[in-house]
Backbone:
């Protein structure tokens, strides 16, 4: 009887685990980082309308329009600059720098200048993720 109950419980736990691995249930990688660190201000789809954006000056950028506002080209090095923190303080910005996203492996990243710079892999993945949001 007890063994049957245990089997039932572990079966349930397994079902929960499988559900947690389904892509819609739990985003992974940069999509997950985005949900955790960015969506509050920039909104779940990047439109700049997250719950924390109300009344914020300057308003969080609409991240789906970065390419459209740049002649159709995703401004990757500018985005990386923002994420790495180079461009902090250019305004009374509420945009924080995310130390958590600097943790983990580093990759050699070429921003297009031909120079490869050691950059946290999660920030590079985030820039690639933002590129997928372009409208
Ligand atoms: C506390 C609110 C807040 C959070 C959280 C936040 N941002 Fe921002 N973000 C802003 C604001 C405000 C601006 C516009 C002012 C500026 O450019 O600094 C901005 C601007 C940006 C820009 C610049 C757009 C451009 O035109 O160059 C990028 C890229 C960006 N955010 C990405 C992110 C990403 C990725 C995250 C999560 C890792 C994030 N932001 C989290 C508030 C936020």
Residues:
């Amino acid at each position: 009887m007890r063994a049957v109950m245990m089997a039932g419980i572990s079966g349930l736990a397994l079902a929960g685990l499988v559900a947690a691995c389904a892509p819609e249930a739990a985003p992974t990688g940069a999509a997950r980082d985005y949900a955790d660190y960015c969506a509050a201000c920039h909104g779940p789809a990047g439109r700049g309308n997250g719950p924390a954006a109300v009344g914020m000056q300057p308003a969080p950028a609409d991240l789906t329009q970065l390419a459209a506002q740049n002649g159709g080209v995703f401004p990757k090095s500018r985005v990386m600059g923002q994420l790495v923190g180079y461009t902090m303080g250019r305004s009374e910005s509420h945009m924080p720098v995310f130390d958590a996203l600097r943790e983990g492996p580093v990759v050699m990243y070429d921003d297009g200048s031909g120079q490869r710079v050691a950059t946290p892999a999660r920030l590079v993945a985030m820039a690639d993720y933002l590129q997928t949001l372009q409208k």
In short: The pocket of heme C is lined by residues 37-38, 40-42, 52, 56, 58, 60-61, 63, 66, 78-79, 82-83, 91, 93-96, 98, 126, 130 (CB under 6 Å). The CA atoms of residues 58 and 71 lie 23 Å apart. The mean pLDDT is 82.
